[in-house]
Amino acid sequence: MNTRLIAARWCLPALLALLPQLALAHSPIEGIGRFYGGLLHPVLVLPHALALLTFALLVGQCGVSAMRRAYPPFLLALAVGLTLAGFDMTFGLPSERLLLSSALLCGLLVVLQWKLPLLAFTVLGAILGAVVGLDSGVEAGLSRQETFAALLGCWLGATIGLIVIAGVVELARRPWQKVAIRIVASWVCASTLLVLALALR
Amino acid sequence: MTKPVLNAALAGTLLLLASTAQAHAPTDIAGGFNSGFLHPLFGWDHVAAMVAVGLWGAFLGRPAIWLLPVVFPLVMAVGGALGVAGIALPGVEIGIAASALVLGLMVLLAARPPLPVAAVLVGVFAIFHGHAHGTELPHAASPLAYSVGFVLSTGLLHLTGIAFGLLTHLRFGNTLVRAGGAVIAVAGAWFLYQAL
Predict the structure, then answer these.
(1) Does the reported pTM lie above 0.80?
(2) How many domains does chain A have?
(3) What is the ipTM score, two decimals?
(4) Chain B interface disruption, residue of A187, A192, A201, most B CBs within 10 A
(5) Residues of A at the B interface (Cβ-Cβ below 8 Å)?
(6) Fewer Cβ close by (within 10 Å): the C or N end of chain A?
(7) Where in the sequence is the signal peptide annotated (chain B) (predicted)?
(8) What does the pLDDT look like over A185-200, one tens digit per residue?
């Protein structure tokens, strides 16, 4: 047997060893699974993340009374919206524009430190929950179990994100911490304003 | 395994190793964020002006030092919206270069004008910077990720300037920060010369 043939026999398994790649299941992040894909959905979809972030900043900045008014309608509307999205009923909403407008409005309110009437938190929470839910539908062809896992993950992800961020903001009492919150809100406002200008041109 | 079969197997395996050709920038959210984040960092005129804003804030003291990073992105976004809308702004490059020169001089001279004057001056320059970023936005892979990236990058440059500006509390910090202003002003003069 000549040496080239021997070398080729060694090369072939080595090259074949380079071929395997990550195992990919069906999920927004490949391989992560439906539940965790849903859990991360509010964080990974930028319009959702920005809208939730500024709403959480606003609620946290206004304190516990705002939380009491904002959480129940948000959680309920989110559940209803996700359920409707699960049945593929999205009503053709311009979700991205609505979410970015919400992010811009809430961000400006945080920057200006305006104290809203408590009813406004109920209304904002209900609208934001419904839009996020309706815009978080799953793709067609999933089993009932996979759909439920994805929607439940999404509901939990948005809920945890809102409550944790608002809680951290509510605990921020020092002047520099309050300024940092307003800086973050202004950055979100600037980003959303530009994209809204692009969408509306 | 015979030699021809082995050769064919090797060639086939090598073909399977080929992946997608990527001659251009990534076109997903990460690509949009990366290009937006790097856009202000790779333009020295932007970097100089943003850092100068932070440095100047240190001389202006409170509340300007914290007000500028809040107001600047918002005004910059208005300029960006003009750029996105295709509304031409005369002398954008000159305005950006002049911002580095003027803000550098403000730091060098440790100027302390009234807060509204400083805010208007910085705001006018912010519109030029925003317009330059905004005209790039429609071509971005993911416009939202691009804008988040460049706003974040701009904000971090401000914070860098503020952090450096806080050296004024130290013994030789004042001189050091004013020297930084001088460097920025010289760079600004060079940018202005090139722009003209």
Answers:
(1) no
(2) 1
(3) 0.72
(4) A187
(5) 5, 8-9, 11-12, 15-16, 18-19, 46-47, 50, 100, 111, 176, 179, 182-183, 186-187, 189-195, 197-198, 201
(6) N
(7) 1-23
(8) 988 898 888 888 877 7
Spatial separation of the C-alpha atoms in residues B33 and B146, rounded to whole Å: 5
The residues near B123 (Cβ < 8 Å, ≥ 6 apart) are B71, B72, B75
Tokens standing for residue B146: 């691009």
Residue A177, CB half-sphere, CA atoms under 13 Å: how many? 10
Domain of residue A160, residue span: 33-200
Across the interface, whether the CB atoms of B143 and A195 are under 8 A apart is answered yes
Mutant choice from A5, A22, A198 vs B, greatest count of B C-beta within 10 A: A198
Domain-located, residue A136 = yes
Token couple for B56: 């100047």
Q: Is residue A7 part of a domain?
A: no
Q: Is residue A20 part of a domain?
A: no
Sign, CA dihedral B168-B173-B177-B182, equals positive
Residues 6+ apart with CB under 8 A from B110: B59, B174, B178
Give me the amino acid identity at A83.
Answer: T
Q: How far is CA B8 from the centre of its chain?
A: 53
C-alpha A84 chain-centroid distance: 18
Q: Look at B147 and A191 and tell me if their CB atoms are within 8 Å.
A: yes
Residue B18 neighbours by CB distance under 10 Å: 7
In angstroms, the CA B133 to CA B151 distance is: 10
pLDDT digits (tens, 9 = 90+) for A119-153: 999 999 999 999 998 888 777 777 778 888 888 99
